[in-house]
Amino acid sequence: MTGQRLSKMAVCVAVISKENYPLYIQTIPTEDDLKFHYTVHTSLDVVEEKINNVGKTTNDLRELYLGLLYPTEDYKVYGYVTNTKIKFVVVVESSNTALRDNEIRTMFRKLHNAYTDMVCNPFYTPGDRITSRVFEKVVNGMMLQDS
C-alpha cells in the first residue's frame, strides 16, 4: 500500500425498529452527530411512504431495497426494509460519485446478513439496542474502505 487513501463509503448507518425507534446508529466522528440523527429520523417518513406504496401494488414486500430516499446538499440517504419491518438507513456524501446503486445494495445485503446473524444470538432480545461487536465490525467496514 503506497499511501493510505481511505474514501468514506457511508457517513452514517442506522437500524430502526418496526416501531420507528433507533436500535443502532453509527456515524463518522464529527462535531455534528445530531445532524445525522435528524437526517435518519426525517427519512422514516419517506420509508413509510415507500412501504405503503409497495404494499398497494403487491400483496407482499418483495423488493427490500428502497433506493434513494432523498438527497440533500451534502448527503444522499438510502433505505432498506426487512420483511419484519426493520429499517436500515445509510447516509453517504453527495460528493461520493464512485458509489453506484449496486454497491449500495451490497452494503444493505451485508448489513441485513449481519443483523440476521446478530438476532439469531440466543442472548439477544429483539427490540433491544444493538451492542454486538461483530455487527459493529461489519458497520465499521462499510464506513471506511481502501481505494
Automatic annotation (TrEMBL):
GO terms for cellular component: cytoplasm; nucleus; perinuclear region of cytoplasm; TRAPP complex. The keyword Transport applies. The keyword Transport applies. It holds the Pfam family Sedlin_N. Keywords: ER-Golgi transport, Transport. GO terms for biological process: endoplasmic reticulum to Golgi vesicle-mediated transport. It is found in: Cytoplasm, Perinuclear region. Belongs to the TRAPP small subunits family. Sedlin subfamily. This is Trafficking protein particle complex subunit 2-like protein. The lineage of its organism: Eukaryota, Metazoa, Chordata, Cephalochordata, Leptocardii.
